[in-house]
Design goal:
Layout lengths: L4 H4 L3 H22 L1 H10 L20 H6 L15 E4 L9 E4 L1 H17 L7 E4 L7 H13 L2 E3 L6 H10 L4 E4 L1 H13 L4 H4 L4 E5 L5 H11 L2 E7 L6 E6 L6 E3 L4 E6 L13 E7 L10 E7 L1 E2 L11 E2 L4 E2 L4 E3 L2 E3 L1 H8 L5 E12 L2 E10 L8 H19 L4 E5 L14 E3 L7
Parallel strand pairs: 3-4, 3-5, 5-6, 6-7, 18-21, 19-20
Antiparallel strand pairs: 1-2, 7-8, 8-9, 9-14, 10-11, 11-12, 12-15, 13-14, 16-17, 18-19
The structure holds zinc ion.
Zinc ion (ZN) binds next to loops.
Catalytic activity: 2-phenylacetate + ATP + CoA = phenylacetyl-CoA + AMP + diphosphate
GO molecular function: nucleotide binding; phenylacetate-CoA ligase activity
EC number: 6.2.1.30
Protein backbone atom coordinates (compact mmCIF):
# COMPACT_ATOMS: atom_id res chain seq x y z
CA UNK A 1 0.00 0.00 0.00
CA UNK A 2 2.83 2.39 0.87
CA UNK A 3 6.43 2.20 -0.27
CA UNK A 4 7.90 4.16 2.66
CA UNK A 5 5.05 4.19 5.22
CA UNK A 6 6.96 6.00 7.96
CA UNK A 7 7.64 8.90 5.58
CA UNK A 8 4.44 8.89 3.53
CA UNK A 9 2.20 8.97 6.62
CA UNK A 10 4.46 11.12 8.82
CA UNK A 11 2.44 13.46 11.09
CA UNK A 12 2.26 16.90 9.49
CA UNK A 13 4.01 18.70 12.35
CA UNK A 14 7.00 16.38 12.01
CA UNK A 15 6.96 16.81 8.25
CA UNK A 16 6.99 20.64 8.62
CA UNK A 17 9.93 20.36 10.99
CA UNK A 18 11.78 18.12 8.54
CA UNK A 19 11.09 20.57 5.70
CA UNK A 20 12.36 23.51 7.76
CA UNK A 21 15.60 21.70 8.53
CA UNK A 22 16.07 20.60 4.96
CA UNK A 23 15.34 24.02 3.42
CA UNK A 24 18.12 25.33 5.67
CA UNK A 25 20.47 22.63 4.41
CA UNK A 26 19.58 23.39 0.78
CA UNK A 27 20.24 27.11 1.28
CA UNK A 28 23.63 26.34 2.84
CA UNK A 29 24.54 23.87 0.09
CA UNK A 30 23.58 26.44 -2.55
CA UNK A 31 25.35 29.36 -0.91
CA UNK A 32 28.54 27.54 -0.02
CA UNK A 33 29.01 25.54 -3.21
CA UNK A 34 27.44 27.49 -6.08
CA UNK A 35 28.88 30.95 -6.84
CA UNK A 36 25.69 31.88 -8.73
CA UNK A 37 23.56 31.48 -5.59
CA UNK A 38 26.12 33.22 -3.41
CA UNK A 39 25.98 36.25 -5.67
CA UNK A 40 22.16 36.17 -5.88
CA UNK A 41 21.74 35.88 -2.11
CA UNK A 42 24.34 38.59 -1.46
CA UNK A 43 22.60 40.94 -3.89
CA UNK A 44 19.26 40.28 -2.15
CA UNK A 45 20.94 40.83 1.22
CA UNK A 46 20.07 37.40 2.62
CA UNK A 47 22.19 34.62 4.11
CA UNK A 48 21.21 30.99 4.73
CA UNK A 49 21.16 31.69 8.49
CA UNK A 50 18.38 34.26 7.94
CA UNK A 51 16.03 31.38 7.23
CA UNK A 52 14.09 30.32 10.34
CA UNK A 53 10.45 30.00 9.21
CA UNK A 54 8.67 29.24 5.93
CA UNK A 55 7.86 32.96 5.59
CA UNK A 56 11.58 33.74 5.58
CA UNK A 57 11.94 31.82 2.32
CA UNK A 58 10.12 34.67 0.55
CA UNK A 59 13.18 36.86 1.09
CA UNK A 60 15.28 34.58 -1.10
CA UNK A 61 15.45 35.23 -4.86
CA UNK A 62 13.74 33.06 -7.45
CA UNK A 63 15.51 30.83 -9.93
CA UNK A 64 14.13 30.82 -13.47
CA UNK A 65 14.73 28.59 -16.47
CA UNK A 66 16.89 31.27 -18.10
CA UNK A 67 19.27 31.18 -15.11
CA UNK A 68 19.74 27.46 -15.77
CA UNK A 69 20.36 28.08 -19.46
CA UNK A 70 22.87 30.82 -18.64
CA UNK A 71 24.65 28.48 -16.23
CA UNK A 72 25.16 25.87 -18.99
CA UNK A 73 26.75 23.45 -18.53
CA UNK A 74 27.98 23.16 -14.94
CA UNK A 75 27.27 26.57 -13.40
CA UNK A 76 24.65 25.32 -10.93
CA UNK A 77 26.47 22.17 -9.81
CA UNK A 78 27.23 22.05 -6.10
CA UNK A 79 29.39 18.94 -6.37
CA UNK A 80 32.66 18.18 -8.18
CA UNK A 81 32.74 15.82 -11.13
CA UNK A 82 33.87 12.82 -9.05
CA UNK A 83 30.58 12.94 -7.10
CA UNK A 84 28.33 13.28 -10.14
CA UNK A 85 26.78 9.93 -11.07
CA UNK A 86 24.64 10.95 -14.02
CA UNK A 87 23.70 13.86 -16.24
CA UNK A 88 20.27 14.56 -17.72
CA UNK A 89 19.35 17.42 -20.00
CA UNK A 90 16.18 19.05 -21.24
CA UNK A 91 15.49 18.88 -24.96
CA UNK A 92 16.33 22.52 -25.54
CA UNK A 93 13.64 22.92 -28.22
CA UNK A 94 12.92 26.45 -27.01
CA UNK A 95 16.50 27.55 -26.39
CA UNK A 96 19.76 26.45 -24.85
CA UNK A 97 19.49 23.01 -23.24
CA UNK A 98 19.60 22.85 -19.46
CA UNK A 99 21.92 20.30 -17.91
CA UNK A 100 21.22 18.74 -14.55
CA UNK A 101 23.55 16.51 -12.52
CA UNK A 102 22.67 13.84 -9.97
CA UNK A 103 24.80 12.25 -7.25
CA UNK A 104 24.25 8.60 -6.35
CA UNK A 105 22.09 9.75 -3.40
CA UNK A 106 20.05 12.01 -5.72
CA UNK A 107 19.37 9.04 -7.98
CA UNK A 108 18.34 6.85 -5.02
CA UNK A 109 15.89 9.50 -3.81
CA UNK A 110 14.45 9.77 -7.31
CA UNK A 111 13.86 6.02 -7.47
CA UNK A 112 12.16 6.14 -4.06
CA UNK A 113 9.85 8.98 -5.13
CA UNK A 114 8.73 7.11 -8.24
CA UNK A 115 8.36 3.85 -6.32
CA UNK A 116 5.79 5.56 -4.05
CA UNK A 117 3.63 5.98 -7.15
CA UNK A 118 4.03 2.31 -7.99
CA UNK A 119 2.65 1.54 -4.52
CA UNK A 120 -0.21 4.01 -5.11
CA UNK A 121 -1.43 1.88 -8.03
CA UNK A 122 -1.15 -1.32 -6.00
CA UNK A 123 2.28 -2.35 -7.28
CA UNK A 124 4.80 -4.38 -5.29
CA UNK A 125 7.95 -6.48 -5.74
CA UNK A 126 5.66 -8.97 -7.50
CA UNK A 127 4.75 -6.49 -10.22
CA UNK A 128 6.07 -6.37 -13.75
CA UNK A 129 6.65 -2.78 -14.86
CA UNK A 130 6.96 -2.00 -18.55
CA UNK A 131 8.76 1.30 -19.15
CA UNK A 132 7.72 2.67 -22.53
CA UNK A 133 9.06 6.15 -21.91
CA UNK A 134 12.05 7.05 -24.03
CA UNK A 135 15.41 6.29 -22.39
CA UNK A 136 18.22 8.79 -22.69
CA UNK A 137 18.81 12.37 -21.63
CA UNK A 138 15.03 12.72 -21.20
CA UNK A 139 14.19 11.78 -17.61
CA UNK A 140 11.09 9.64 -18.29
CA UNK A 141 12.68 6.27 -19.06
CA UNK A 142 15.42 6.10 -16.46
CA UNK A 143 13.22 7.78 -13.83
CA UNK A 144 10.47 5.17 -14.10
CA UNK A 145 13.12 2.45 -14.38
CA UNK A 146 14.73 3.54 -11.09
CA UNK A 147 11.30 3.50 -9.43
CA UNK A 148 10.68 -0.05 -10.58
CA UNK A 149 14.07 -1.19 -9.33
CA UNK A 150 13.61 0.56 -5.97
CA UNK A 151 10.31 -1.27 -5.52
CA UNK A 152 11.89 -4.54 -6.60
CA UNK A 153 9.62 -4.95 -9.63
CA UNK A 154 10.54 -6.90 -12.71
CA UNK A 155 11.34 -4.04 -15.07
CA UNK A 156 10.96 -4.33 -18.84
CA UNK A 157 12.87 -1.45 -20.44
CA UNK A 158 11.12 -1.42 -23.83
CA UNK A 159 11.63 2.34 -24.23
CA UNK A 160 9.32 3.98 -26.78
CA UNK A 161 8.69 2.89 -30.36
CA UNK A 162 8.15 -0.47 -32.10
CA UNK A 163 4.61 -0.46 -30.79
CA UNK A 164 3.46 -3.86 -31.99
CA UNK A 165 6.34 -5.44 -30.14
CA UNK A 166 5.39 -3.41 -27.05
CA UNK A 167 1.90 -4.88 -27.22
CA UNK A 168 3.20 -8.40 -27.74
CA UNK A 169 5.54 -8.15 -24.74
CA UNK A 170 2.83 -6.60 -22.64
CA UNK A 171 0.67 -9.64 -23.33
CA UNK A 172 3.29 -12.40 -23.30
CA UNK A 173 5.27 -11.19 -20.26
CA UNK A 174 2.16 -10.28 -18.26
CA UNK A 175 2.87 -6.59 -17.70
CA UNK A 176 1.02 -5.27 -14.62
CA UNK A 177 1.95 -1.60 -14.84
CA UNK A 178 2.76 0.51 -17.88
CA UNK A 179 4.74 3.76 -17.60
CA UNK A 180 4.85 6.17 -20.56
CA UNK A 181 3.42 9.43 -21.89
CA UNK A 182 -0.41 9.57 -22.10
CA UNK A 183 -0.38 9.98 -25.88
CA UNK A 184 1.81 6.89 -26.22
CA UNK A 185 -0.42 4.93 -23.84
CA UNK A 186 -3.37 5.69 -26.10
CA UNK A 187 -1.38 4.67 -29.17
CA UNK A 188 -0.38 1.39 -27.51
CA UNK A 189 -4.01 0.73 -26.55
CA UNK A 190 -5.26 1.46 -30.08
CA UNK A 191 -2.51 -0.70 -31.59
CA UNK A 192 -3.48 -3.59 -29.30
CA UNK A 193 -7.10 -3.24 -30.37
CA UNK A 194 -6.09 -3.14 -34.05
CA UNK A 195 -4.10 -6.33 -33.47
CA UNK A 196 -7.33 -7.96 -32.38
CA UNK A 197 -6.92 -7.82 -28.59
CA UNK A 198 -9.08 -6.28 -25.93
CA UNK A 199 -6.37 -5.19 -23.47
CA UNK A 200 -8.93 -4.48 -20.76
CA UNK A 201 -9.95 -8.17 -20.81
CA UNK A 202 -7.12 -10.11 -22.44
CA UNK A 203 -4.14 -8.49 -20.70
CA UNK A 204 -3.02 -8.68 -17.08
CA UNK A 205 -2.28 -4.94 -16.93
CA UNK A 206 -4.02 -3.19 -14.01
CA UNK A 207 -2.41 0.25 -13.82
CA UNK A 208 -0.59 2.93 -15.76
CA UNK A 209 1.68 5.73 -14.60
CA UNK A 210 1.53 8.49 -17.18
CA UNK A 211 3.06 11.95 -17.39
CA UNK A 212 5.47 14.34 -19.13
CA UNK A 213 2.82 15.98 -21.30
CA UNK A 214 -0.58 17.66 -20.84
CA UNK A 215 -3.61 15.39 -21.02
CA UNK A 216 -7.31 16.25 -20.78
CA UNK A 217 -9.65 14.37 -18.46
CA UNK A 218 -11.46 12.88 -21.44
CA UNK A 219 -8.25 11.46 -22.81
CA UNK A 220 -7.38 10.01 -19.38
CA UNK A 221 -10.79 8.34 -19.27
CA UNK A 222 -10.32 6.92 -22.75
CA UNK A 223 -6.91 5.45 -21.85
CA UNK A 224 -8.21 3.97 -18.57
CA UNK A 225 -11.19 2.42 -20.31
CA UNK A 226 -9.32 0.97 -23.28
CA UNK A 227 -6.59 -0.57 -21.12
CA UNK A 228 -8.86 -1.36 -18.17
CA UNK A 229 -6.52 0.25 -15.64
CA UNK A 230 -6.10 2.63 -12.71
CA UNK A 231 -4.63 5.83 -14.14
CA UNK A 232 -1.88 7.45 -12.09
CA UNK A 233 -0.83 10.93 -13.12
CA UNK A 234 2.83 11.67 -12.42
CA UNK A 235 4.33 15.14 -12.23
CA UNK A 236 7.97 15.97 -12.59
CA UNK A 237 10.34 18.06 -14.60
CA UNK A 238 13.93 17.44 -15.52
CA UNK A 239 15.14 20.67 -13.89
CA UNK A 240 13.75 19.58 -10.53
CA UNK A 241 14.34 15.80 -10.78
CA UNK A 242 12.20 14.01 -13.33
CA UNK A 243 8.96 12.03 -12.93
CA UNK A 244 8.03 11.47 -9.29
CA UNK A 245 7.93 14.98 -7.80
CA UNK A 246 4.21 14.35 -7.24
CA UNK A 247 2.07 11.28 -7.96
CA UNK A 248 -1.65 10.53 -7.95
CA UNK A 249 -3.02 8.05 -5.41
CA UNK A 250 -6.07 5.82 -5.87
CA UNK A 251 -8.38 8.55 -4.53
CA UNK A 252 -7.83 10.28 -7.88
CA UNK A 253 -8.21 13.83 -6.61
CA UNK A 254 -4.74 15.27 -6.69
CA UNK A 255 -1.08 14.29 -6.74
CA UNK A 256 0.79 13.80 -3.46
CA UNK A 257 3.96 15.88 -3.48
CA UNK A 258 7.02 14.05 -2.12
CA UNK A 259 7.18 16.67 0.63
CA UNK A 260 10.25 15.23 2.29
CA UNK A 261 12.16 16.03 -0.93
CA UNK A 262 10.36 19.15 -2.25
CA UNK A 263 8.91 22.29 -0.74
CA UNK A 264 6.15 23.81 -2.89
CA UNK A 265 4.84 27.35 -2.93
CA UNK A 266 1.94 28.61 -5.07
CA UNK A 267 2.32 32.22 -6.14
CA UNK A 268 0.13 34.70 -7.93
CA UNK A 269 1.83 34.81 -11.36
CA UNK A 270 1.39 38.58 -11.64
CA UNK A 271 2.37 39.79 -8.17
CA UNK A 272 4.51 36.76 -7.18
CA UNK A 273 2.91 36.91 -3.73
CA UNK A 274 1.88 33.59 -2.13
CA UNK A 275 -1.78 32.60 -2.48
CA UNK A 276 -3.73 30.65 0.16
CA UNK A 277 -4.04 26.85 -0.17
CA UNK A 278 -6.76 25.98 -2.67
CA UNK A 279 -6.17 28.98 -4.95
CA UNK A 280 -4.61 28.55 -8.37
CA UNK A 281 -1.22 30.02 -9.17
CA UNK A 282 2.31 29.28 -10.31
CA UNK A 283 4.09 26.34 -8.70
CA UNK A 284 7.49 27.26 -7.23
CA UNK A 285 9.69 24.43 -5.97
CA UNK A 286 12.63 24.32 -3.58
CA UNK A 287 14.47 20.99 -3.49
CA UNK A 288 15.14 19.65 0.01
CA UNK A 289 17.60 16.79 -0.41
CA UNK A 290 19.28 17.38 -3.73
CA UNK A 291 23.05 17.35 -3.46
CA UNK A 292 24.29 18.09 -6.97
CA UNK A 293 21.82 20.68 -8.23
CA UNK A 294 19.96 22.25 -5.31
CA UNK A 295 17.15 24.48 -6.55
CA UNK A 296 15.99 27.44 -4.50
CA UNK A 297 12.52 28.74 -5.39
CA UNK A 298 12.49 27.46 -8.97
CA UNK A 299 9.63 28.99 -10.96
CA UNK A 300 8.13 26.08 -12.88
CA UNK A 301 5.57 28.20 -14.85
CA UNK A 302 3.12 25.36 -14.23
CA UNK A 303 -0.23 26.41 -12.85
CA UNK A 304 -1.87 24.34 -10.14
CA UNK A 305 -3.16 24.67 -6.59
CA UNK A 306 -2.44 23.04 -3.25
CA UNK A 307 -4.99 20.58 -1.90
CA UNK A 308 -4.28 20.52 1.83
CA UNK A 309 -7.30 18.52 3.04
CA UNK A 310 -6.37 15.11 4.51
CA UNK A 311 -6.47 12.32 1.92
CA UNK A 312 -8.48 9.14 2.47
CA UNK A 313 -5.46 7.06 1.39
CA UNK A 314 -3.73 7.96 4.67
CA UNK A 315 -0.79 9.79 3.15
CA UNK A 316 -0.10 13.06 4.96
CA UNK A 317 1.82 14.77 2.17
CA UNK A 318 -0.18 17.58 0.62
CA UNK A 319 -1.36 17.34 -2.97
CA UNK A 320 -1.26 19.49 -6.05
CA UNK A 321 -4.20 19.53 -8.43
CA UNK A 322 -3.84 18.37 -12.02
CA UNK A 323 -1.96 21.04 -13.90
CA UNK A 324 -4.15 23.63 -15.54
CA UNK A 325 -1.49 24.79 -17.99
CA UNK A 326 1.55 27.02 -18.01
CA UNK A 327 1.63 30.68 -17.07
CA UNK A 328 2.95 31.33 -20.59
CA UNK A 329 -0.40 30.07 -21.96
CA UNK A 330 -2.62 31.91 -19.51
CA UNK A 331 -4.97 34.53 -20.94
CA UNK A 332 -6.43 37.35 -18.88
CA UNK A 333 -9.91 37.94 -20.32
CA UNK A 334 -12.05 40.63 -18.71
CA UNK A 335 -9.91 40.27 -15.62
CA UNK A 336 -10.42 36.50 -15.38
CA UNK A 337 -7.55 34.02 -15.79
CA UNK A 338 -8.41 31.56 -18.54
CA UNK A 339 -6.37 28.66 -19.87
CA UNK A 340 -6.89 27.27 -23.37
CA UNK A 341 -6.88 23.84 -21.66
CA UNK A 342 -10.15 24.73 -19.86
CA UNK A 343 -11.78 25.47 -23.20
CA UNK A 344 -10.37 22.26 -24.66
CA UNK A 345 -11.80 20.27 -21.76
CA UNK A 346 -15.31 21.55 -22.54
CA UNK A 347 -15.00 21.06 -26.28
CA UNK A 348 -13.74 17.49 -26.04
CA UNK A 349 -16.77 16.56 -23.92
CA UNK A 350 -19.09 17.21 -26.92
CA UNK A 351 -19.40 14.30 -29.35
CA UNK A 352 -20.69 16.57 -32.12
CA UNK A 353 -17.41 18.46 -32.47
CA UNK A 354 -13.79 17.49 -33.14
CA UNK A 355 -10.92 18.54 -30.87
CA UNK A 356 -9.71 21.24 -33.27
CA UNK A 357 -10.59 24.73 -32.19
CA UNK A 358 -9.40 28.30 -32.22
CA UNK A 359 -9.90 31.09 -29.72
CA UNK A 360 -10.19 34.48 -31.44
CA UNK A 361 -9.83 37.52 -29.20
CA UNK A 362 -10.78 41.07 -30.15
CA UNK A 363 -11.66 44.34 -28.47
CA UNK A 364 -15.26 45.59 -28.47
CA UNK A 365 -15.57 48.98 -26.78
CA UNK A 366 -13.65 48.69 -23.52
CA UNK A 367 -14.10 44.92 -23.29
CA UNK A 368 -12.44 41.78 -24.54
CA UNK A 369 -14.56 39.81 -26.96
CA UNK A 370 -13.95 36.07 -27.04
CA UNK A 371 -15.00 33.85 -29.90
CA UNK A 372 -14.40 30.12 -29.79
CA UNK A 373 -14.47 28.48 -33.20
CA UNK A 374 -15.18 24.78 -33.31
CA UNK A 375 -15.63 22.26 -36.09
CA UNK A 376 -18.37 19.67 -36.27
CA UNK A 377 -17.67 16.02 -36.94
CA UNK A 378 -18.19 15.10 -40.62
CA UNK A 379 -21.46 13.25 -39.84
CA UNK A 380 -23.10 16.29 -38.25
CA UNK A 381 -26.08 17.61 -40.31
CA UNK A 382 -24.51 21.02 -40.84
CA UNK A 383 -27.41 22.36 -42.93
CA UNK A 384 -30.04 21.70 -40.25
CA UNK A 385 -30.19 25.15 -38.70
CA UNK A 386 -32.11 24.14 -35.59
CA UNK A 387 -29.65 21.42 -34.64
CA UNK A 388 -26.73 23.73 -35.27
CA UNK A 389 -28.22 26.49 -33.11
CA UNK A 390 -28.99 24.01 -30.35
CA UNK A 391 -25.39 22.78 -30.35
CA UNK A 392 -24.07 26.35 -30.35
CA UNK A 393 -26.20 27.27 -27.34
CA UNK A 394 -25.21 24.19 -25.37
CA UNK A 395 -21.52 24.78 -26.05
CA UNK A 396 -21.78 28.47 -25.06
CA UNK A 397 -23.62 27.63 -21.83
CA UNK A 398 -21.09 24.96 -20.89
CA UNK A 399 -18.17 27.27 -21.63
CA UNK A 400 -19.71 30.09 -19.61
CA UNK A 401 -20.30 27.77 -16.67
CA UNK A 402 -16.72 26.58 -16.80
CA UNK A 403 -14.86 29.84 -17.47
CA UNK A 404 -17.13 32.25 -15.59
CA UNK A 405 -17.17 34.62 -18.59
CA UNK A 406 -19.43 34.78 -21.64
CA UNK A 407 -17.99 33.64 -24.95
CA UNK A 408 -19.42 33.51 -28.45
CA UNK A 409 -19.30 30.14 -30.14
CA UNK A 410 -18.93 29.93 -33.89
CA UNK A 411 -19.46 26.52 -35.42
CA UNK A 412 -17.63 25.95 -38.68
CA UNK A 413 -17.70 23.14 -41.20
CA UNK A 414 -15.34 20.16 -40.92
CA UNK A 415 -11.68 20.79 -41.84
CA UNK A 416 -12.05 24.59 -41.87
CA UNK A 417 -9.69 25.37 -38.98
CA UNK A 418 -6.05 25.34 -40.03
CA UNK A 419 -4.14 22.21 -38.97
CA UNK A 420 -0.57 22.44 -37.86
CA UNK A 421 2.20 19.90 -37.99
CA UNK A 422 3.79 21.15 -34.80
CA UNK A 423 2.21 23.00 -31.94
CA UNK A 424 -1.35 23.99 -32.88
CA UNK A 425 -2.09 27.71 -32.90
CA UNK A 426 -5.06 27.83 -30.56
CA UNK A 427 -5.21 31.53 -29.80
CA UNK A 428 -5.48 34.40 -32.27
CA UNK A 429 -5.15 37.62 -30.31
CA UNK A 430 -6.47 40.62 -32.26
CA UNK A 431 -7.05 42.74 -29.17
CA UNK A 432 -5.86 46.34 -29.06
CA UNK A 433 -2.44 46.56 -27.47
CA UNK A 434 -3.70 48.11 -24.20
CA UNK A 435 -6.07 45.21 -23.58
CA UNK A 436 -3.57 42.39 -23.90
ZN1 LIG B 1 -4.00 10.08 -1.28
Amino acid sequence: MYFQPEIETMPREELFQLQLERIGETLRNAYENVPFYRQQFDEAGVRPEDFRSFEDLQRFPFLVKQDMRDAYPYGLFARPNKDVARIHASSGTTGQATVVGHTAADLRNWGDCFARGIAMVGGSADSTLQVSYGYGLFTGGLGAHAGGEAMGCTVIPTSSGNTKRQVQMMRDLGTDILACTPSYALFIADTAIEMGYDPAKDFKISAGIFGAEPCSQNMRDEISEKLGIQYCDVYGLSEVMGPGVAMECAERNGLHIAEDHFYCEILDPDTLAPVPDGEWGELVITTLTRECCPLVRYRTRDVTRIISEPCACGRTHRKIDKLRGRTDDMLILRGVNVFPSQIEQVITSFEEVVPHYQIVLSTRGPLDHIEVQVETVPEFPFDEVRKLEDLRKRLAAELKGNLQIAVDVKIVEPKTIARSEGKAKRVVDNREAGNR
